[in-house]
Amino acid sequence: MARIDGRAADQLRPIEIIPNINRFAEGSCLIRCGNTHVLCTASVEERTPPHVPEGEGWVTAEYAMLPRANRERSRRDIAKLKLSPRSAEIQRLIGRSLRACVDLAGLGERTITVDCDVLQGDGGTRTASVTGGFVALALALWKLVQDGVLPEMPLKTCVAAVSAGIVGDELLLDLCYEEDSGAQVDLNCVMTGEGALVELQGTGEGRSFTIAEQQALVALCQKGIREIQRIQKQVLGGGRDENGISQQERP
Amino acid sequence: MARIDGRAADQLRPIEIIPNINRFAEGSCLIRCGNTHVLCTASVEERTPPHVPEGEGWVTAEYAMLPRANRERSRRDIAKLKLSPRSAEIQRLIGRSLRACVDLAGLGERTITVDCDVLQGDGGTRTASVTGGFVALALALWKLVQDGVLPEMPLKTCVAAVSAGIVGDELLLDLCYEEDSGAQVDLNCVMTGEGALVELQGTGEGRSFTIAEQQALVALCQKGIREIQRIQKQVLGGGRDENGISQQERP
Amino acid sequence: MARIDGRAADQLRPIEIIPNINRFAEGSCLIRCGNTHVLCTASVEERTPPHVPEGEGWVTAEYAMLPRANRERSRRDIAKLKLSPRSAEIQRLIGRSLRACVDLAGLGERTITVDCDVLQGDGGTRTASVTGGFVALALALWKLVQDGVLPEMPLKTCVAAVSAGIVGDELLLDLCYEEDSGAQVDLNCVMTGEGALVELQGTGEGRSFTIAEQQALVALCQKGIREIQRIQKQVLGGGRDENGISQQERP
Amino acid sequence: MARIDGRAADQLRPIEIIPNINRFAEGSCLIRCGNTHVLCTASVEERTPPHVPEGEGWVTAEYAMLPRANRERSRRDIAKLKLSPRSAEIQRLIGRSLRACVDLAGLGERTITVDCDVLQGDGGTRTASVTGGFVALALALWKLVQDGVLPEMPLKTCVAAVSAGIVGDELLLDLCYEEDSGAQVDLNCVMTGEGALVELQGTGEGRSFTIAEQQALVALCQKGIREIQRIQKQVLGGGRDENGISQQERP
Amino acid sequence: MARIDGRAADQLRPIEIIPNINRFAEGSCLIRCGNTHVLCTASVEERTPPHVPEGEGWVTAEYAMLPRANRERSRRDIAKLKLSPRSAEIQRLIGRSLRACVDLAGLGERTITVDCDVLQGDGGTRTASVTGGFVALALALWKLVQDGVLPEMPLKTCVAAVSAGIVGDELLLDLCYEEDSGAQVDLNCVMTGEGALVELQGTGEGRSFTIAEQQALVALCQKGIREIQRIQKQVLGGGRDENGISQQERP
Amino acid sequence: MARIDGRAADQLRPIEIIPNINRFAEGSCLIRCGNTHVLCTASVEERTPPHVPEGEGWVTAEYAMLPRANRERSRRDIAKLKLSPRSAEIQRLIGRSLRACVDLAGLGERTITVDCDVLQGDGGTRTASVTGGFVALALALWKLVQDGVLPEMPLKTCVAAVSAGIVGDELLLDLCYEEDSGAQVDLNCVMTGEGALVELQGTGEGRSFTIAEQQALVALCQKGIREIQRIQKQVLGGGRDENGISQQERP
Prior knowledge:
6 copies of one chain form a homohexamer. Chain A has about 250 residues and is of the alpha+beta class. Chain A has helices at about 75-80, 85-100, 105, 125-145, 175-180, 210-235, and strands spanning about 15-20, 25-35, 35-45, 60-65, 110-120, 160-165, 170-175, 185-190, 195-205. The first copy, chain A, has a 5-stranded mixed β-sheet. A 4-stranded antiparallel β-sheet of chain A has the order 7-6-8-9, with helices on both faces. The model of chain A is unreliable at about 240-250 (pLDDT under 50). Strand 9 (about 195-205) of chain A pairs antiparallel with strand 9 of chain B, so a sheet runs across the interface. Chains A, B, C, D, E, F: GO terms for molecular function: 3'-5'-RNA exonuclease activity; tRNA binding; tRNA nucleotidyltransferase activity.
C-alpha cells in the first residue's frame, strides 16, 4: 500500500529544526516535521514552584495550538475558559519527557518553562513538541553555562519522540494527519539517545492490538528516533566550536 | 524484597466490586482495590454530542477525586476554576477504554456517561476506574436490554486495567500509593477479555527503561488483568440467571 | 393521609452513621438518612484564612453532589465553571452551624474543613450534612485531643438538623424527595443538644404560611432532632472507653 | 439601652422609595432604608428559561453590591471570577420571595428579572432588596397591563421584608450595620400583606436562641413589615389615578 | 438639521455633578450628563500593586454598566465569566487619563481605585466617567490632605472629557445614544485644564474621515471641555472655604 | 538625536510580508516589522453571530501574544482565566479597522475571523497586526472569489497602520520597544489607501500634548502608511497575474 505522500512504511517525514528562532527566549527553535510546525521556546526564571525541594530546579512544559493550526479554526482556550483537555494531557507528557533529561539538582533553584505552540498541525504535534522542546531546552541550558550561571550542562540524557501506527493492518512510522485519523492503533514513543524508553503511549482507536503488534510498533519508533536524534545533534552540535564559543549567537 | 503489605510481586490487592450501589444510575458499582475506593455510575441520556455521526451513540467518562481522597486535602476543581490536568488526562483514558468495548451503532443515538469518583485513593485509581467503570457501563447496557430499549448488548468486548512498575529494580504488580510514589517506572495496561491491548501508558519516573523491561511489565499486567476479569464476570454474571432474569434488581 | 414510605407524620427515616469511613481524614462518617447518603470528612490544616483573628481557629464547610446523586445526572460544577448557587447557599448554612459548636480560641490557629459530598440524594441532604458533618468534626477534634495537640475538646455544644414541611396541609417530619418536591412549606432547623435554635430556614414554596404553622413545624423538628442526637451520641460515645482509649482507631 | 441612632427598639429606620428611577427598565425604584440604598430594576423579556412549564412565566432576581457599597472596597465578582456566595444566597432568597407573589400562568411566557444593586450598604440590604424589588416588579407588571400585554395584574399578594435581632440581649427591629455586626441573633422575615410568612431565616451568630426568642423576633418583624407595606402602597398607589392613568410616567 | 433634543451642534447636554454621594468612599460623585448617569467612587488603599516602583503610588479605574443601564438588559459579566471587552477598553482609558493628573511620587505608596458604575447610559458613558472620575479622585486626594496624610494635593493638572462626532455629515458635540448609534465618525477627547490632549480616540464607524474633519472634531471637543471644567471647578471649589474647612462633609 | 537602530526620524523599520504562510487558512501571512513578527490568518466560516443583520457578513479579529513574545515570559491567558485587557482593547481596534474595509452585504452571510498571533514583539504589534491582518483578509476574500463563492471582491478600501511618538521631544515614526517604553506621547493611525483616517488613538504617557503636536504625529503616520501600503500592494498584486491566475498557490 502506497502512503499518501509516497514515503516508505518506516520513513520519517522531512525534519527541519531552526534554532534560536526567538530573539528573547533563552533557548528556542522552530521544528518542522512535514507540514507540522511547532515553535518551541525555553524560558528561564529564577524561582521554582512550591512543590520543588529546596536546592533543586524544575522543568515544565506548556502546549497549545494556534486557532488556525488545523483544517478548521478552533476557538481559543480563553474563549471557552478551559484549557483543552487534549492540551492538558499533551503538556504533561512533554513536561515529564523533558524532566527525565535534566539533573534538577544541577539546574539549581530555577524553572525552565518550555512553550510548544503549534503554528500548523498535520499529525504528530506532540512528538514534534518533545523533539523540538528538547532542542530549546538544551540551548537554554547551554546559555546558562555560557553565561557562567551553571558550571556544566545539567543534562543526564537527550530525548526525541515519534509516533507509529497501524493503518489498514500496515505498520507505519510517523503518521501524518490523514493516516492518523484513519489509524486503528496509534503509539507514541519518547526515547533517550541510548534507545531506552522514557514515555510510551499506545491506543487502540479502531481495535485492540496484540502484544506482538505493540512490540513491532515500538521497534519502528526506535528506528525513527535514532534518525531524529542525529538531526538534533547537528543542530545542537553547532552550539559550540572546539573553543567552546557558541556559533548560535546572532551576529 | 518484601512488599509493604506482604504481597507477592505478582499479586493483586484484594478486589471487591459492589454492583448497583446507586439507586438512580442505570448502572453503578463501588470498586475497592485495597484501600483505593472508586464509585462508578453510568448514566444514560437520550442525546449525543454534536460530533457524533447520526445513528450512533457515544460513551464518555469523567473522573474526579473527593477533596479528602488523599493523605492531604486537595482544593476542589471548582475552587480553582480549573479541571485538574491530571483528571483531564485520566478521564480521557477511561473514555477511550470504555468506548473500545461498545458497538456505538448498536447503542443508538444515546450517550452513556461513566462518572468515576474516587472516595479514597491509595494508588491505581485510574485502573480501578476503568475496571469499575466497565462494570457500571455493562450494567447500564444490560438495563437497556432488559427494558426493551436495545435488542441485544452492544458490547464488543470487555476491559479491565491494572498497573505494574519497577520499584528498587523489582517488577511489581498493582502498585499501592507508597510503592507508586517511589517507583522508577510505572506502566498501566487496559486489556480486553481476550488479552489484547486497548491502552498502554508507561512512564520512566526515576529513570528510563529498556524494551525488555517494558515487555516484562506488560506481561505482569496481563496476568493481573486475567484475574480481575474473573471478578468482573462474577459480578456481572450475577446480573442474569439462566432464564435471563436479572438478580441485581433491588427487591 | 399515608406517607409514601408508610411513616407516621412525625417519624424520621432510618438513620445510620458509619464513623471513620475514610482512612486519611482526621474525622469522617457516612450518614444515611433513608436513601440520602452523605460522605462527610473533616480535615485539619495548621493555618487559618486571613480574616480570622490571631490566636483563633476556623471551621468551614463545603457541600457538593456527585453528578448522579439525583434522578437525573447533573453536570459537574467544573464543567459549568460555576459553583452551584444552591451548593453555595447550603455550604454557608453548614459552616455557620458547625462553627456555632466550636470554641474557636480553644481550637487554636488551625482550620477544620468539613466536606459533605452527597453520594445519593433523596431529600434532606442539607440537614443530613449538618448532622453527619458534626460527627466528622467531633471525631477530628477528638483525634487532636488524643494526639495531644489540644488539651481538651473545644466543643461548646453539639448540633443536629432535620426538616419538616407542609404537604397537602399535613405537617410532616423529615421529608423525602417526593414529599419535598410537592411540599407547600419547607422548614429546616439546626438545633443544639439543649434544644435551642442555631439556624432556622422556612420557605413558602406553594403558599405563604401562618406564624402558628411555623411554630408547629419548629416543634416537629425539635422532636426529630432529639432522636437524631441520640444516634450521634451512640456513634461518638464509642469514641473513647472509660480509660479514654479511642475504640475507633483502626487496629 | 439606647440605639446608636436613637431609635426605639421596635422602630424602623426612615424608608424612602423613589419609583421609576431608571428610564429604560419596565419597572424600577431606588429604595433607601436609612443609609442602605438599593437600586432595583425589573426587566421584562419575552422568553423563559428551559425549566419553566409551557404557558407559564418566570420571575428571578440578581443581587450585587457595588465595590464601594461598604466601609472597605470589595473586589468585583468578575475580578475573582466567582459570584460571591453571599450574593448567590441572597438572590435566591429575593427570587423565591418575589415568585411567591406572582401568578406565573397569568404572567404568560415571559421572564421578569429583578436586579437589586446595592449602591450603599448599612445593614439590611437583603430585606431592602425584597421590599424595593417588589415595587419594581409591581411597576413592571402594571406597565404590561397598561400596554395591553396583560389583561390584569398577575399578582397574588404583595411582599415586604425586614430584619430583627438580639443585640446585648435586647430585641431590636431593623438592625443597621453596627448593630448587625455585634448581634447575637439575626432573623429576617419576608411577609405578605396579610401578615403570613413567605421566607424566614434566623441565625444564631454569637449564641443559640430559644424558641420563645425566635417567636418574639418574628412578632417584631411583623410589626415592621406592616409599616413598610403602607409605604409600598403609597408609592404604588401613585401608579394610577381613578381613571387608570399612570402618574409615574415621565412628562 | 435639528438635533433630537433641540441642542445646537456645539452644545453640551445639561451636566450635574453631585459630590460626596457615597458615605464610605474617600471621594465620590454622581455625574449626570443628560440621561447618562454614572456613580463614581474613589477608594484609597494603603498598598500598591507589584509593578509600581517603591515610594510611588498608583491610580487605577474600573468601569461597569448595571444590567439595566441600557435599553435592553445585559447579562452581568459574572454570569458570562468574562469582563466585557468594551469595559476592559474603557477602564484602561479612564485609568490612563486619571493617572496623567497625579504626581504618583507625591501620592506615596497607596492606590486609589476609581470605580465608575453606569446607572443609566445614554451615550458618552466613557467621557462622563473620566469627568466624574476626576472629581471623585480630587475629593479623595483632598480628604488625604485634610486628614494630614498628605502635605499637599498631588495633582499635576485636572482632566475632563467629551465626545464629538459626524452625524449625517454634520459635526456635533456630546452625542447622545441615538446620535451615537447613527454616527459616521465618533471621537473622544480627554484634555487638561490647559487645553492639552491626554487621550484621543477617533473611529470611523460608517466611513473614514479626513484629517481636516479630525481637527474640526478635536476643536469642538476642546470648546466643550472648557465648559465641563468650569462645572468641575464649581463642585470642587465648594470643597473648602477660605479657612480651608471642607463644606462637603455631611452635617 | 540618533535612533537606537540608526533610522531617520521619519523612517520605517524594514517590513517583510510572507503571504500564504499557513496551509489551511483561507488567507494568511507572516508580517515582520523589524523584530516584531505577527502571524495573521483569516478563517472563513459559513455563519454569522446573532447580532449581524440577515443577508450580511461579519469580520472580526483576535489578538494574542505567545508567552515568550516579549523580553520576559508572560503567563498564558488561560492560566489566568482572563483575556488580557490589553489584548481585548487591541483586538477590538483590529476588528473595527478591518470591518471598515469590507462591504459586509457583499460578503454574504459568512464570518471572517482574522487571528493575529504575535510570535515576537518589539513595539508596534497592534499596527503590524492591522497591516498584516488586512493582507490575510484580502487573500481570503480573493480565494472566495477564485472559488466562485463571491462574484467580486467585497473590499471598499484597504487599510494599513503605523505608530508615531514623541521621545525626548523628538517626533519619531514607527517606534520600536525601547523607544516606545520611553515615549512621552504615543499615537497610532489606521488609514485607508486614500489617506483618510479609520482609527486614531493618541495617549500622553509622560505628559499631555498640544493639538499641533497631535497633527504633526498624524502627518508622520500618513507618510509611513503610504510606504506600507506600497508593500501590501506588492504582496497582494502577486495574488493574480494579468490572466487572473493566482500566483500564490502552493506548487
